[in-house]
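Need residues for this backbone.
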């Protein structure tokens, strides 16, 4: 029993640290997910929850750092009873969120492990129930964990250091880009290829005849069977990018044009939260790219309306052709507003936060 409890203790601590670090790797992505929860709660329980959207990024770093700190505290067995009750509170909070998402089908991806591990709502809820079971085993068997690895001032120093490191990791990722990019638009990916299935999709057909239901791998020629549903047998081979589309002010589709040649995309996700202090340097980069011997064509892409963006670009003296895309797509492309993406025939060669704006030499070096 002693060994089993210690294994549960170790697993619980490691999973909390892992979960927190994955979220801190992409705090903006975690904030997007929190905003989605707040919008759902506002619709179901009242507009009060919309106030939390303004602090979603702060909550993202705070909650993620808390997971790391509590995981470290558990492994050190620092103030074990207090640490376990704190873990319990966090677990109850996350379990409620995932159950609510799963039962009411509100938020289809909990974001528990960012985009590193995609979990369905019920998988997320099951994961939290599993963690609660681990917690219960550890909590009711604390007698097997009497040895403390860091006491008094030393323990406080370790916990403080863990908290400072966790917050530092999140703040740096917030002001730059994720350390590890798990999104389909990461550097090295070919957007055009990811828009196509990696293998021919195969389907099964669910048909009904009276009260009888049967599955067919080929569509039946017997017309007495009535079609109910078509299900992919190999969904993992489907397109990884299904919503990438860019269009002009006249609604003309320019998606394929974006994926040809050398393109420097300036992505302005939304004007309300776009950082306006960097556009002098952004304009210099756009001008430098236009004069490059590598024939880099610049394109500005936004999710705002033409009238709104026209006013904005005059305010920041932004010149160049601008196009439009879905806001969610732009958020997936880069965790920066504004931000740069460099493409070569649809292959992502570089991504740049507005704190790390490249010059022409850097762009040419990547092509």
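Answer:
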């Amino acid at each position: 029993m002693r060994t089993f409890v210690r294994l549960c203790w170790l697993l619980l601590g490691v999973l909390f640290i892992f979960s927190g670090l994955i979220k801190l790797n992409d705090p903006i992505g975690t904030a997007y997910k929190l905003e989605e929860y707040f919008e759902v709660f506002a619709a179901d329980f009242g507009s009060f929850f919309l106030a939390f959207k303004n602090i979603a990024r702060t909550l993202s770093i705070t909650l993620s750092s808390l997971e790391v700190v509590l995981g470290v505290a558990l492994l050190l067995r620092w103030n074990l009873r207090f640490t376990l009750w704190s873990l319990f509170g966090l677990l109850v909070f996350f379990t409620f969120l995932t159950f609510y998402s799963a039962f009411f089908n509100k938020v289809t991806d909990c974001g528990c492990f960012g985009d590193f591990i995609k979990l369905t709502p019920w998988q997320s809820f099951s994961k939290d129930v599993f963690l609660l079971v681990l917690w219960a085993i550890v909590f009711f068997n604390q007698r097997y964990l009497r040895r403390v690895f860091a006491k008094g001032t030393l323990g406080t120093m370790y916990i403080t250091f863990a908290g400072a490191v966790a917050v530092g990791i999140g703040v740096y990722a917030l002001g730059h880009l994720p350390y590890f990019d798990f999104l389909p638009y990461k550097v090295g990916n070919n957007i055009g290829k990811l828009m196509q299935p990696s293998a021919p999709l195969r389907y099964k057909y669910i048909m009904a005849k009276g009260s009888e239901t049967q599955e067919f791998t080929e569509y039946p020629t017997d017309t007495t069977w009535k079609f109910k549903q078509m299900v992919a047998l190999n969904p993992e081979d489907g397109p990884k990018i299904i919503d990438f589309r860019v269009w002009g002010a006249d609604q003309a589709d320019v998606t394929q044009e974006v994926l040809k040649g050398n393109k420097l995309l300036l992505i302005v996700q939304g004007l309300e939260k776009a950082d306006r202090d960097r556009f002098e340097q952004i304009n210099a980069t756009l001008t430098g790219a236009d004069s490059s011997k590598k024939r880099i064509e610049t394109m500005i892409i936004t999710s705002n309306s033409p009238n709104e963006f026209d006013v904005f670009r005059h305010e920041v003296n932004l010149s160049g052709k601008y196009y439009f895309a879905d806001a969610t797509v732009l958020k997936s492309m880069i965790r920066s507003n504004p931000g740069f993406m460099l493409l070569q025939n649809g292959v992502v060669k570089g991504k740049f936060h507005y704190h790390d704006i490249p010059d022409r030499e850097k762009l040419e070096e990547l092509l």
